[in-house]
Structure formats: C-alpha cells, structure tokens
Write a structure and sequence with these properties.
Blueprint (H helix, E strand, L loop, with lengths): L10 H4 L3 H4 L2 E2 L13 E6 L1 H4 L5 E7 L4 E6 L5 E7 L3 E4 L2 E4 L5 E4 L5 E4 L6 E7 L8 E2 L2
Antiparallel strand pairs: 1-2, 2-3, 3-10, 4-9, 4-11, 5-8, 5-10, 6-7, 6-9
C-alpha cells in the first residue's frame, strides 16, 4: 500500500494501554510541604510516543486523596471524568463533577481535585505540551 497517510507506523511507540503501563504516584510538593496525592499513567508524551504537541494520561484519585491546587503558566489542560464524583477546584470555584464531564483548564488557571467519595476517580488528562510544563503549587 502506499499513498498519502499510508506510511508504516511503529505501533509499539504510538499505542499504549493503561493496564499494561501501570500507574506511578504523583510526586509534587505543596507550599507547606504537603504531598500531592493520586496516580498517573502516561499514555502519550514526547518521550513515550514522540509527541511534539500534547501529553495524555490516565489519572486516578483514590478515596480520601487530594490532587494539590496548582497552575501551569505555560500549558492548558483538560480532564474528562470517567468514574467517580470528585470535587473539582477550578479558579475560585469548587463543584462536584460527574462521569462524562469534560473540564477545560486554561493556561494559568488554578485547579485541583479532591476525592471525598467512596470510589476511585478515574479521568483522562491532557496537557497542551508533550513534556516539561511547569507545575506551580497554589496551596
């Protein structure tokens, strides 16, 4: 086969599965030394996929965990809630999200998540840079 858009691709580099990748703990620290909480599995990034324009991950916030409020001066972000009903902190507003919600976080906007429920919160997370965005804690 040939033609436009028919080049051979490296599926091992372009296709990643959350169940095969596994999760790592978030590792940021807040303004008073508090630890960021939650798990992440990076699925698309510069290093993993060769992306030059975005990073996509699967996030998991366990019951009782809080993903620190922070902002990115150099990147926008989005969340798509897959399961659970987290409290989303977005700018000066806090609200209860539900599965199916898509949340756009403009560059520079403070945001974070609290799982005060009994089930895991699963979400797809996207950032408008493939790597190396700044994480500035707001709490």
């Amino acid at each position: 086969m040939g033609g436009i858009g028919q080049e051979t691709v490296d599926l091992a580099r372009l296709v990643h599965n959350v169940h095969e990748q596994g999760f790592t703990a978030l590792d940021k620290v807040g303004l008073e030394g508090q630890r960021d909480q939650g798990l992440v599995s990076t699925l698309i990034s510069r290093d993993l996929s060769g992306s030059d324009d975005l990073c996509v991950s699967w996030g998991k916030i366990l019951p009782g965990q809080h993903h620190l409020c922070h902002h990115h001066p150099d990147a926008s972000e989005f969340y798509v809630v897959i399961s659970g009903t987290p409290m989303v902190h977005l700018g000066g507003t806090t609200y209860r999200a539900k599965p199916g919600d898509a949340i756009y976080i403009p560059r520079g906007t403070s945001h974070g998540l609290t799982n005060d429920g009994d089930e895991d919160v699963d979400l797809v997370v996207g950032v408008s840079k493939p790597a190396d965005w700044q994480f500035i804690p707001d709490e």
